[in-house]
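[job 0417] fold request received: TonB-dependent receptor
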Amino acid sequence: MLATPVVAETATATSAAADAAKPDTDQDSSAAQADPTSSGNDIIVTGRAGNTARRKVEASYAISTISAAELQMKSPRGVGEALKNVPGFWIESSSGEASGNIRVRGIPNDGYSTITLQEDGLTTQHDGGLGWLNADQSFRMDSTIEQVEVVRGGPSSIFASNAPGATVNFITRKGGDHFEGYAKYEVGSYNDHRVDGWIGGPIGSTPWHYLIGGFYTLSDGQRQSGYRQDQGGQIRGTLNASYDWGSLMFGVKRIDERIGNSMVSPFVNDSSGNPVGVNGFNALYDTIAGPDTRYFNFRQADGSTYRFDDGVGTTEKLTQLTGELKLNIAEGLTFQDNMRYRSSFTKRNAVTPYAVYDAATLLSAYSKYASAYGGTSVGYAYTDNPTQAIDMTGRNGNGLALVNLIRSFTIPEKEFINDGRFQKTAYIFGQKHDFALGGYFAHVSEQYHSTSATALTDVKNQAQLLDIYALDAAGNPTQSITENGILSYGAEFANGRGQSDTAAIYGSDEWQVTNKLRIDGGFRWEHVHTSGTVEGKQTVNLGQSATIADNAVLTGSGVYTPFSRSFSHTGWTLGTNYQFQPGLGLFARYTSAFRLPSVGDFIGNANNNPIVQKMNFLEGGLKVSKHSFDFYATAFRSIYKSYAITDYTLTNGAYSGRTVYGNTKTWGVELEGTWHPRTWFDLHAQYTWQDPRFSKFIYTNSSGVLTDYSNHYLIRVPKNSFRITPAVNLLDRRLRIEAGISYYGKRFSDVANQIKLPSYTTLDLDAQFDVTKRLELNLYVDNVTNTIGLTEGNPRAGTIDNSEAGAATYLARSIFGRSVRGAISYKF
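[job 0417] inference complete; emitting structure tokens
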């Protein structure tokens, strides 16, 4: 049977929750009265703790759900793609399947630092915003994910750490009472191949069930670098059993995969002011990275070399063990304990364009070295033909030269997490309360090492390395001033290790005042202690080559500085819901939230002085769930105090950052609805309007000039965005075709609001055909119109005052060009 729009019934996805949270028969029978085809009937398990089942339309906070049917229809490859239908989210997934950015309700943090990703209610990574270790790097989408629930704001920060913005809960499949399975093969237009599937069922006549599933992929990547970018996959297995006294679940997951990591590229504006790639470079399909820039040997202070391989991309090797225990202690009293251990090794290598120049202008900066290197002038030569000087004027149709950061980050990490809670349903003075009291503990151990160099290339697809040479009077190269394309080794250096112990106590109460009125409240007290050591830095002349490449290398000093810091804070939330009818309700909520510093704030700088980041949210909404129509509207206000911005600059060959703070305020409205008036037609739409601004931001630049940027727009957050998805069901509902039309309003890439990222609109097409009840065909076409959509500017040119402001040629990153994937799947 084909997917029903947006959200199908979730009986299988939430059966475990429903077993533990039996519906309250003393309350009004709302669930029984509501139309069973309505998504408002879905039982939700995220953002609350209680024994009573709660339907989506009864929630006192904003929650979106994504069904297994929709996941099959869209086949998202990464977390960002899976969540692009969620209102209130600004999602940037132009880097690829991982390493994306999500901003929720105007919270302008990068990565996943204010969002937690969960599997079955327990976080997959305690701090999703560790440096160069985004939570989406440690999570993969595949067919073992049955449903997704997304809580925005509200109680998210009460039941999870580092989640003031949102909680995204991926609910996994479990084995059922009969043997079944699923297999899928998918092929893409960029030499992409992927197999995906699972099998599960009972273990004999025991109460135990099993499920095993995963995927394996091979791909050249959507920006083809000339070598394979994606290879590897994931496998997971679960064992679960239910008894009269409760239930048990054990799970194991292994990720061993490398995926590409797309970077910025050069742009100009056309006669209409729209961004296009520079001459000779296709902004939708081309990439600077290529065979010439894949391998480097970085000179090290001890005389060794560090082997850089851009083919590593983002490499993730992760092992995760999960346990879950549920106990029915007494009537209305349950205990649940979830624990998870993970060990991961992450390596991220990238060729990252730093600055683009007119080749002649850049060359003039090196003319001072001509006489010292035995020449009368300086010029360019390709590294694979050092005897031939080349004229860069108009070369590749653009005459540009590019300085690139060749970056390598290595982050091994281990963590143990435990979350246990008691849940009690009680009647006090005839009124029902669902109480919860829980504790959370996380031990995180991390190492962090970074090294990089700057390298010079031309500008074209799969760019070539350039060296700068001293030229004799005849214009012939005499001696290389740079080394094999390297302008400077040691542009970045970090070496540290640390650990943190986080303990939290939280509690909540869902108080059913009347059959229609409910008041929900909760609190979370959290404490973190961090400790570790960080190696100092020094700039040295290695003296290992005759070039300038190793004259000023940032490297370790051999002196380690310890750090040991503790932080604590308390947050709380209070909300109310009034259910006029089973399918009609109103809610309002206030939340005081926070984010504590973590080991990631110190592991690169032991003397860092981070602060507790405090936020508060006000929201209210209308929820309607009828036979053929679901509608959710939420108005919100987000206040963020002490938002930290780190501005990076490259000075004298060294890349360094400075952190400043500001306050923000965002007003907004989220709208989400589904209308299915006929069996052959349905429509889903979501719209977000927000006014995201700095309420206070005063900045003093390196020259001592003070500028007040208060009331400027926040970085990369659009004022308007929407997605409309009309769909038709044909051939007795065996064929379903969807068109996804997305619009993203203009944004700014810098605090000064000088670099504008223009608005853009995209079109995606998806089709699904049931050949039989078991055999299915899918087609996915992304960015049908080949739209260029800039998601970010060049943060390496400055996040506050961007040095590329007003430049005719600039660096930015676009969404991917049109791609086509097809799939065949079989259910058994």
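[job 0417] notes: The chain has six helices and 44 strands. The chain has one domain: 15-220+228-827.
[job 0417] exit 0
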